[in-house]
Every structure is written in structure tokens, then in C-alpha cells.
Amino acid sequence: MKRWLSPVGGWVANRNIAQPAGEGLPQAAAVLDNFFPSATTVMLRRGSELYATLGTDKKPVRALFKYVSGGNQKLFAATDNEIWNITAVPNARNWRLSTAEDDDLETDTGARFGEFSTAGLNVLTGKQSGDWSVIQFATAGGIFLRGVNGVDKPFVYDGETFTETPALEFESTVTDVKPEDMVTTWAYKNRLFFVQKDTLDVWYLPVDQVGGKLTKFPLGGVFQEGGSILFGATWSLDSGAQGGLSEQCVFITTEGEIAVYQGANPSDAADWSKVGVYRIGKPLGRKAWIRAGGDIIIATTTGFIPLSQAIQRDVAALSPAAVSYPIEDAWNEATLLRGNEGWHCQIWPDRQMVLVVPPHMSGSSPVMFAANALTGKWGRFTGWTSNCMEVFQGQLYFGSLEGEVIKANVGGSDKGNTYTGAYLPLFEDLGAPASLKIGELARFTIRAASLLTLSVNLHQEYDIELPTAPNATSVESTSEWGTAIWGQSVWGGTRESFMNNRWNSVGGSGYALSVSCQVTSGSIVPLDAEIISLDLTYQTAEIVT
Fold first, then answer.
1. In this predicted model, what pLDDT tens digit does every residue of 422-460 receive, in sequence order?
2. Distance CA 492, CA 484 (A)
3. How far apart are CA 522 and CA 296, in angstroms?
4. Shortest CA distance to 278 belongs to which of 263, 294, 259?
5. What is the mean pLDDT of residues 491-517?
6. For 515-535, what is each residue's pLDDT tens digit?
7. Residue 259 to residues 198, 219, 231, 233, 288: CA-CA distances in angstroms?
8. Residues 6 or more apart from 156 whose CB is under 8 A from it?
9. Which of 3, 8, 58, 354 sits CB 3.0–4.6 Å from 402 for a disulfide?
């Protein structure tokens, strides 16, 4: 008998497929879809539910951003033409009463029956782009949001109102640049910086100001590969002169060059100096990066690269240092098939989850690469079509391509639709590479909220193609808030868990074997299926010479 333990090594797609799992590697998976790896187990992700519908024309949600100042906490969503305050949405869906022929029902006075999800919640209108770059910035005058998108006039939000003042201004000698050209913003040393779109020029404000006169900081002579500046950020290293953190200002180009500066005032040569210029792969988008502690991790054509590694290695040697190295082949395939622009990344601290989202391809299943922020192990999520993300009050939200804002990892269905978790361990020659093995029985031990409807299948000779997914498992909802039965359910009681460990007959033979399981979720209640182990019984045939 062969036992595979819970695949805490996560999804692996960068190694010789014939390498046995035990050779210096924790138990890992050739397929790990919609399961998330932790340090001790892997758990089926929860579902998603509609949170808000922006307007009526199903325009893509381009940006989600938040304002947090004490008890004043707001969540905003942007389409190409409007920004909406979606902190509290009365109804998730637009609805109306109509006939079978789709004609609206009306009163005698012409009033219609229905309601828009976000009626009256739009706070900024008449815009041309929703791809906002937004920074929260504190000054002596208050705490503000400053937003730019490279097309529209930049906005300022003071916690109550969106305005265009204080405005961004230029010296009278600057005639070919306008505030609408600022496409990305960030804060460094209590000063706001802005990238002028499609150039190698950066502009900055005086200290402690969200508006006023901008000063130009040209970088055309610094970057040798050309292109334009994609974004900038504050970066910290534990190598400060006094033994503490050393804060740097970094500028990243479309061609994968990074210029690092230190100091506080770009106008003062004695207080501003270049540390160096480094190379990484080409970044995959303006929002394709996260901050991990003081470090910055950038999604590039080379992989998910920590900036701390980029300054130590040649670009040709960066791949093994990538956070995404365990899924290198899958990452490379995604950049080839889904493009190297428009990716976005999000860290969800409450769930210790990092999500890297390639652009969605029409006609294909949406995909996200999901990593455990503590262990660095990977899984893959399918079924969530995300165009942007934000974490607000501990909850992850993502914007869809059809004007919807979705609450992630809640319930047991994806907006009422089923989704399937799949696990296939790395293949094993079972200690006898030259002998044919004949499968007999397989047993997955899975702890879940219900007895599961599983599809269990034997795979031979490194074939990872999965059969048709099983029907959804039904779950009793007697202990879920909002669905409990009065007088029968215990307030505050925990849900009963079931141990699934039934033996299944598996047919087939091969020199290298693995066993897959699939489980489909579609109920209101999440399955919370937790894989503990897999056992396989088999016969080994004699070698015939």
C-alpha cells in the first residue's frame, strides 16, 4: 500500500515529472485546483457572492479602493465613467418586474417597478477612464485620497467629498504637460510622486501637500532600455546606516529596469542620490505587484520576483529566486497565452493569501494563482473572473468584467453556480520503476461539513487529464446563520464535521501511478473539505525478460 499525505507542498509545476516526491520535497500536487495549502493541510476554497451591481450598462469594474480614517471607512468602485460609494449597498442586484415578453410593468402614471443596486451611490461622474491609481495620504490638514488615471483630472477625497482641488499645477514654462497626464501616484518620505504617462518623467509635490506646484524629475538618462515608467513605490531594506530600515524610492519601467534612489529631497543633490539601476523581467502591469513587509514583489515575465533578490542577481539568474518558482512552467504558459499586460496582484493578510491574476481570455476558464503568504506554497483558483481587487474590513472583494463587485471566499457556491476542487498528487513509481503496477483500491481521507460525493480515478504514466467532475455535494444548513431551524439549532454551536474515508475501486495499470479526487460544491453552506491523506492498494507485476 502507498500513502500520500496532505499536499502541504502545494501545486508544483517546475520539476522533472518522474522525480519521486520524497526526494527532499514535501508532499506536493500535480493538480491542486480550488484548494488552498496551509502549513498543515489543504482546504477547499469557499465560494463567492454578488455584493453590488454598478449601474445598468454592465461596464467592467476597473478599480476598487478604500478610505480608512478611524471610524470613517469607505469602499469605492470605479467603472470607466463613474465612481461609486459601495460601503453599504441595500441590494446586490438590479431588479425589475416585467412581462414574459420582457416589457416593463408600469403604473397608470408610468412609474416602473424595480430598483437599481447602486442607485444614488455614484459620487463622481463624467469620467473617461476607471483605471485609477489611488493613494491615501495624511497631511497637517487632514487625511486624503489622491487619485490619477492618465486621462481625467485627478481627484481629491477628504473623507466626505470628491473634488479636483487642491489641483496639481505646473510652472508657467511647462506648456506640454497637464494634470490629466499623471497616471500613477505613490508616497515617499511624506511627499507625493506622480508618473507622467508614456514617458520616463516623474513629478513630485512639496512635503505634506496633496496639491500645488509639481517639480519634474527626469529619468530618461538613467534607463538604458527605454520604454516608460510603469509605477513607483517606497521600498525598505534592513541595511540602514544606523542598523535599522533603509527607505528607498524605486522607479520601475515597462522594460524591467529599476532605478533605486535614497534621500528625502530630489531637488537637493546633498539629500538625494542614486543607489543603482537593476534588471528584472518585464512587469506584467501597473498593479501587478504587492508589498510584503518592507519588500516589493513584482509579477514579471521571469516570475514573481522580490526586489531584494533583483539587486543581488543578474536578470538571467532570477528565475530560481522567484516566489513563483514552484509553478514556473504554468507561469510561463500564462504569460505566453494570456499576455504580459493587465495582470494584478493582491495580498489578503487575514487569510494569509496572495493572489496573482492574469487577464481573462474569452472562451477560457478564468484562473488565479493563489499562494500562502507564510509558506510560499501555491494552488490554483478557477471560476473567479477578477478585473481588480481590494481588501476592506478584512474581506476580499473583486470587480468583474460585467459591472459586478463580488465578495470572495464566502458560502458554498459561486453566485449560485457550482465549482469543483481537484487534487492529483505527483506521480510515484512506488519504489519499483521497472515493474508494472496494477491499481486495486483507493481511499481519500477528507474532513468536511458533509459526506462528500467524490470522483476518484487512477492515473497512469503522468497523464494529468481529469475526468468529468461529479455532481455537487448537498449540505444540510441547520447550523448556518440565517438558515438554522428555530428551536433545533444551538446558538454559537460549531458545525458537525464528517470524516470521509470510503474505499473506492480503481482500475488500470502503469509504471507510474497517481490518484485524483474531485469534489463539487454548490450549496449555500461551504463544504470546507480538508484533505488529510490518500491510500492506494496495488499489485506489482513481475519483470518479464
1. 999 999 999 898 999 999 999 999 999 999 999 999 999
2. 11
3. 37
4. 259
5. 87
6. 999 999 999 999 999 999 999
7. 17, 9, 11, 11, 18
8. 144, 145, 146, 147, 162, 163, 164, 165, 166, 210, 211
9. 58
